[in-house]
Structures are given as C-alpha cells and as structure tokens.
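> tool_call: predict_assembly(chains=two)
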Amino acid sequence: MTDARTFSSPLDLQSVRADFPILSRELAGGYPLVYLDSANSSQKPLQVVQAIEDHYLKHNANVARAMHQLGAEATAAYEGGRDKVAAFIGAPSRDEIVFTKNASEALNLAAHTLGASLKPGDVVVVSEMEHHSNIVPWQLACERTGATLKWFGVTEDGRLDLSNIDELLTEQTKVVALTWVSNALGTINPITDIAAKAHAVGATVVVDASQAVPQFPVDVSTLGADLLAFTGHKVVGPTGIGVLWGRYDLLASLPPFLGGGEMIEIVRMTGSTYAAPPARFEAGTPPIAQAVGLGAAVDYLSGIGMDKIAAHEHAIVEYALEGLKTVPGLTILGPTDAENHGGAISFALDGVHPHDVSTVLDTRGIAVRAGHHCARPVHERFGMQSSTRASFYLYTTPEEIDALVDGLGFVRSYFKVD
Amino acid sequence: MQLDSLYQEIILDHYRTPHHAGLADPYDVEVHHVNPSCGDEVTLRVELDGDTVTAVTHQSVGCSISQAATSVMSDLVIGKPVAEGMATYEKFLELMQGRGNVEPDEEVLEDGVAFAGVAQFPARVKCALLGWSAWRDATAQALAANEGAKNA
C-alpha cells in the first residue's frame, strides 16, 4: 500500500474540491465518486457553471450583429472570454485567439488552411503518439494535395524517437504537427527544441496542446509554435468550445475555413472578401455562453495558480506511478517515471481486458477510461489493442489513487488472475 | 449494478475457452468487424450449405463480454438454417436493449441467457453484439454470393 507521507501538494485539496459539487456525488452501491477521467473531460467548478447561467439569464443575445443593449452585453462577454484566454496562454494579441467548437475543429482548421498551399512533394510530419485528431486531418490534407505524411516514432520507454529528425525535417517539410503531452502515454514532448529545427527548414509548427494547457503554465510567445490547439472542456470549462491560437501574421496569410456569417468583409454574388482574423475563422453564431464559461474557467485556474496545479499534477502522478507499480501483473504504457510526465497513466493488467477492468472499477465508483483513447497507432506500437487509463487533475487526491490501487487488486481477485 | 449479474460463470467460461475460435478452412466469406469506440476487433468466417450454416469460426481481440458473446453466438447458429439464426439474433438484441426488463427465452438463447445482466450496463451492450454483427454481415454476403452463383 502506498504511504500518504510521500505525498505533498501545494493545493488545499479540500477547498478546491468544495468548488466541484459533482465530486461529492455518491454512485450506485453507496460508493463515493472517484473521478479519474479528467484527460477525457474535466469536471466544472461552480464559478464556471454560474458564469454560464448568469450569461444566459441576464445577458443573452447574439453577438456583433445585434445592435441593441443586450447584443452589446453579449458581444462584450464573448470578446471578454477571448481576452481572458489570450492572457491565460500568453498570446501577444487577442486577435490571435480563434474560437472553434473543440480541439478537433481547431486542428482541422489548421490542416485545411495550411493544406491549401501543400502540393505533391511536400511533406507533413506528425508522430506515432498523436491523438487521432492530429493524424486524420493531416492524412486528409495529404490525400487532397498529394503531399506525403511522415511521422516520428516512439521509443520503447514511450518518448518521441528523435533519432531520425534530420531525415524527417528537410526542405520539403512544410508542416510539423505534434502533441505537446500525449493523451495515452502522458509523455511531455520537447516542443521548443523541435520547433527550432522545424523553423530552420522553413516548416510551420502546429501543436496539439489539449493535454498541456490544462496542466501547466503555457506561454505561446516563447514556445516556438506557430499554431496551437486546445479545448475548453478539459480546462474546467464547458463543452462546445475549442481554441486555435496562431501567430497573427500567419493567421492573416491563411485562407478561410468555414464560410458564413461574420467571417466576411463584403459579399457579392460574383465573389466575397473576408474579414481579418480571428473573425475570418469564426463563421456563424459562435459559442457565446461557452466563451463566457471558458473565460471563467481560465480565471478560476489562474486564481489557483497554474504553477501550483502543475506541481500538484506532478506529485499525484509520482504517487500514482508508485502505487500502480505495486499491483502484480500491471504494465505501464509509456514513461514510468514522473519526469516530463503529464497527468495521465495508461496501463495493462495481465489476464484482464481493459473494458473488464473499467467495468469492475466502475461498480466501486471509480471512473477510468478503457480503450485506445483515440490513439490507436501508439497502442499498436506497443503491441496492445487497448489499455486502461487513469487521469488526474487539480482536484485528485492521494486517497483516490489508493482507491484505484485497491480496486485493481479487487479486479485481479475477481477475475482470479493470481 | 451487480457485478456478478454481468460476469456470469457461463460468460467467464466461454471467455477462457471460446468455442469455434481459430479461423478454419473451407469458408465462403470472411469479415473483419471493429467497435471503433473501444477497439475490439473480430475476424469471422462463415460457410453455408444452401440455407444452412455449416461453419462459423472466429479470431478476436476484445473483452470478456465480446469474446464470450461471439463464442455463444457460434454455438447458437452452427447447424441451423440462416433464418433461424437471424431470428435468434432478434431475440438476443431484444434482450440486450431491454434494460433488464426482458425475460430471456432459454429455449432459444441457451447460454445466451447469461448475457441478461449486460443489458443493465449500457456501455457494454455493443461488446455483446460485435460477434453477431460480424456473423450477420458475413452470412448476408455468403447468401448473396450463392444467389449470384446460381443465377450466373
């Protein structure tokens, strides 16, 4: 059994958890909820839910095109969300923040607009540890344009294999699209170093930061990325809103993605001209209340302090890795030390399929994810079809990790794998 | 959520020693089905003699429920007319979608009644149906091919 003395967090977990009413829920059988699926979707604090409620109940109207008082309030609230997100990730300008419906749409936006200038002979580089959202849009872009998709492999210990970086990054390489933190392995990749090499050959660097922005302080002004995507619902914000940050001069050079209202300058039947970023990429009524909620979410995280949240994640990952290593027959997928390890740990348990692991844990109130976590290629890399994943956030306690470790012992005895 | 109602001994037996596992020759049609959301995969071969199912073999990666359901499904359809197998599927589907309110017919479903508890775990219903969907697809293709051969 793990020892609580080895755990130390800068967060007051009791007061953090009080902000998340769902965490005190009881599930079937009287078990308290042990929510270890935050890499899938995080829970929401009262402050976020109340901001959305307040918006809908007092300020609701469409943005920009509504010329009345409520329209002005809704516009201010929506654009206020943009200001908060820009500040949260260190964007030099609010106009570099494009709201999408999720990270997948943000990455598709990147692949479509960058893809418009790809041609046969060009190369797009991704990695074997990407989420499907950062593989498939590039496969589609390559199919449309005749460009070639190449990828970084993954080492035996779950790190990005950079041994052939000079073969992958050449004059032909136009785009390098990489995840910052692997959603399956938890690996944190050295984005700044890779971005410098990609820029040296003239490639544009796209970063999937879906698992990074929730977990540690992000400063896009020094990262080295040209475009960066993340989603609202993983940063204690609502579903239905994602973010694409881009260097303004790059965004300004890109063609539109979706056509519709608000993304235009002048529409004539013979052709149209387009608005400047970010409006160029926000066709139609945007996720207004969601932007308000996302603004409240990043305010909430900033109030607690992203440096403290990162330190807590590190401590809980270290504690969880120690605990999981005590379970017989358990193999951790990816890095087994907490260094450069994000807040998700995937594992296999000898003799029990991940779906069965998750169902048995679920009957004890423990919510984990089982499957390929939308990262099938990296599972194939390790000869696995699927895995069980436990993922953590600012509200995760060492007691919940203990419950997981105990639960896995019960899974083993239930399936008689001893 | 009663764990033992999901993991009946019969299910665990079929999981540990699945019937008709391992792809065999000869066969008419081979299909490969996946549950994209979870990654379970089954490769399944069907051989028909006229309208009768003479052989079903399979190879799969997946959880206890999907593997055991494929094993039980094979037992239920082999040696039977295709129409009877399809009718059994309808009964099994009704049980799976019944949220625990459907009384299973042991005459028809045999070991399949052990899956009654799965209906109370909505996330696992698709596991129990994967092998069935592969068999229905392969059988429909085999029937169509036989029909085509007759008319050629």
